[in-house]
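WARN no homologs supplied; continuing
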Amino acid sequence: AQTTQIYAADGTLLAYLHGVENRTVISGKQIPDKLKHAIVAVEDERFYQHNGVDLEGFGRALVVNLQSQSVEEGFSTITMQLVGNMYLDRTDISLERKFNEMALAWQFEQKYSKDEILDMYLNTIYFGSNAYGIEAAARTYFDKDPVDLTIAESALLAGLPQAPTAYSPRRNPEQALARRDSILL
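OK structure emitted
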């Protein structure tokens, strides 16, 4: 789903129309490196070292979850989240779905470059306030294109996908700023 833009004859933007999802897909060239780096640092710090499945993260999560006898920690990589959002039911928390997600992530990494995967991810993830993808998020929260975001604004947006409501600058400004500040460190 993508947002439709309506322009006047002189090229002036008149309105945005969207359905359930507010999303405008943009090229990776329109996404600043500072934002890409912030997302990778927050969501998957070993993104450029693994092949879609972070075995170190898997081992760490397995130990933590076995010790607590519950699901306390996840290990989804950016690629796993992307294929899960695109092809699987993310509300299904079964082991079968997790193994399917891992297999799809590995296959995805055989077909696409890391930069292509990161660009797809940034165009699909949910940032809260009905903003899907980084273009919609930049417009929703700062009324600007992603390329015009400051480092602080990029860090705030990078903190949203993990918990869009909890870190919403509209609903919980103190938590959003604390999350942003932790990302900037």
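DSSP finds eight helices and two strands in the chain.
OK
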